[in-house]
Amino acid sequence: MNTQNAVKQYQTANSQGKIEDASPHQLIHLLMEGALTRIAQAKSCIAHDAMADKSVQIGKAISIIGGLQGSLDMNAEGDISENLDALYDYMVRKLLDANVKNDPAILDEISGLLREIKDAWDSIPAEFHHATQKTASR
User: For the CA atoms of 8, 28, 13, 15, what is the dihedral angle to 10 degrees?
Assistant: First the structure.
């Protein structure tokens, strides 16, 4: 995982909070939370006819998802990284579509997909969190 890239994307999209002490596993958790928050804020902006703010929030969500995508270890065995890469690409394209169409249903779809990934990530037992740290040091 390219942790520095993920940290930069998170800091760019979210200037609050301290992430310097976060482990790579915690960082991915924070990125996913940040993206979900931005998508929820964009949905609220649509409901309140705040289109400029909606675009900003969707842009931040796209940036965070880009950080998640950039943190994938494409050299890892199995198809997980390739599948996540394709899914993150799909999410970015759909977020762009939601921005153009002002469609909260698309935002709900992307939130649901991201929540599923986050739930799976969060369910990784603590004894396996070191695996992401080994990947980060490559």
Answer: -80
Which residue numbers in the chain have pLDDT < 50? 15-16, 133-138
Any residues with CB less than 8 A from the CB of 35 and at least 6 apart, and which? Answer: 61, 64, 65, 68, 114
User: Rounded to whole angstroms, how far apart are CA atoms 14 and 137?
Assistant: 24
In this prediction, residue 77 carries a pLDDT of 76
Which residues lie closer than 8 Å to 15 by C-beta, 6 or more apart? none
Whole-prediction pTM: 0.81
Whole-number pLDDT of residue 135 = 45
User: How many residues make up the chain in this entry?
Assistant: 138
Q: Return the residue matching tokens 């999209």.
A: 13
Residues 6+ positions from 84 with CB-CB distance below 8 Å? 68, 69, 72, 117
Domains of the chain by start residue, with CATH = 3-136 (1.20.120.340)
